[in-house]
Amino acid sequence: MLPQTAQLPAIQGGQQVTVRVPATSANLGPGYDSLGLALTLHDTLTVESLDSGELLFELSGEGAESLPRDASHLVVRAMNAAFERLGYRHNGLKITAENVSPHGRGLGSSAAAVVAAVTAANALLPSGEQQDRNWILQLTSEMEGHPDNVAPAIFGGLALSWQDSDQYSSTCATVNDAVIPIVAVPDYELSTEAARALLPASVGHHAAAMNSGRAALLIHALTDKPELLLAGTEDFLHQSYRAEAMRPSAALIKALRQAGHAAVVSGAGPTVLVLANGEAEAADVLQFIDSFTAANTPDINWRVMKLAVDVEGAKVGVHRR
Ligand SMILES: Nc1ncnc2c1ncn2[C@@H]1O[C@H](COP(=O)(O)OP(=O)(O)OP(=O)(O)O)[C@@H](O)[C@H]1O
Ligand SMILES: N[C@@H](CCO)C(=O)O
Questions:
Q1: Is the dihedral of CA 187, 191, 197, 202 positive or negative?
Q2: 74 C-alpha vs ligand 1 centroid, how far in Å?
Q3: Of the bound ligands, which one is closest to the alpha carbon of residue 235?
């Protein structure tokens, strides 16, 4: 049985919405829980509203073998939360997901799923009832607990997000064309929940002050002066505490930084993100990762991808009966 609130109006059956949503890299070093970058790696979610009361799933790609095919699936949970807040219910859904972003690796897979689901639920409403992207930011940030992945997944580009009490906001900055994101995704997972549990409850004033300076510098480096990316990506709040849970990634980051490349933990890890300044550095980084991992982490399979900044964010297509 689907959870139903009988007195609410039902979404009309026979509608189909497709949402393409980018992977995202949060933190970028010192921007813990606030900065995030959308990447050209996309999941696609198609939802059809049914009249039969059924929940149907067609899952392919990442997680196809392991994700649940019932109301506990993250997309269904997020859609139900969205419908409830919008004052609607559904009479069944067919979920078709083509998942490309790796799960539990620090590339915002849960945020992508939640953003795609809430965006799809909103798009299934009658057009006069639909909410804007700031409404989607609010609900998805609440679900994730922080806005740094969902904001770039919704808006694209480099998102700077903040929280006032229980209200979330975000604005976008334009990334310098020279900046090239490269990700090295290891074959081991680390859940965000486990990575957050490693952080101390408080940090000292000196660390906080150092981190503030680097976060400000990072925005200047990403937008105007990419030659400052190495200094701008230094963080004092999270990576050192989490290193024990991702030793191969921490070793690769240390070596890349010693060689002058702006390497950080992507999100809660264990993916390594490098922000290269131009094609020549990007080529050096790819070569460096190849040689370092072959010599030092032969038991780990790394998927290395040279990407670009996604500037579109979540894109919606709707077909009505
Ligand atoms: N497309 C999806 N469909 C359904 N569930 C998903 C999907 N993507 C992620 N999930 C769920 O979210 C979990 C991963 O979330 P988690 O927050 O630990 O990592 P992440 O989002 O990939 O990384 P990070 O938040 O550090 O960027 C998966 O194990 C799975 O349960
Ligand atoms: N800011 C988050 C990103 C992962 O969801 C963290 O580092 O825990």
A1: positive
A2: 9
A3: 2
